[in-house]
């Protein structure tokens, strides 16, 4: 996998490598791109950061990959907030600006 430092640098190829997919069809490419976009939107919504601010935090890269893996494994196109892994919750919590 490439050395990725920004969320905006994540491609479907990076996610496919993370998921250990050997060959990716056009449909799977589209799905992986959708998963990346859903993950970015979820992070933005959860933290209160705008999408353009996600690149300021390199630890969001692993969060995107983990969320994509979870959605891929569960064949869903949404993030189940009640079932976030501890690492994802911890990283997102560190950067949340909309805590009440």
Task: Name the helicity range.
Answer: 40-55%
Number of strands: 0
Mean pLDDT across residues: 94
Structural class: mainly alpha
Shape assignment = globular
| Number of spatially distinct domains | 1
Along the chain, the helix and strand elements come as HHHH
Radius of gyration: 13 Å
Describe what this molecule looks like in 3D.
With 100 residues, the protein is mainly α. The chain has one domain. Helix content is 54%, strand content 0%. The chain is built from four helices and no strands. The protein has helices spanning 12-18, 26-47, 60-74, 86-95. Helix 1 (12-18) crosses helix 2 (26-47) and helix 3 (60-74) packs across helix 4. The longest helix has 22 residues, at 26-47. It is globular, with a radius of gyration of 13 Å. The relative contact order is 0.17. The model has no long low-confidence stretch (mean pLDDT 94).
Descriptive keywords:
100 residues; mainly alpha; 54% helix
Quick summary of this structure?
By secondary structure, the chain is mainly α.
Question: How are the SSEs placed, and which strands pair?
Answer:
Blueprint: H1 12-18, H2 26-47, H3 60-74, H4 86-95
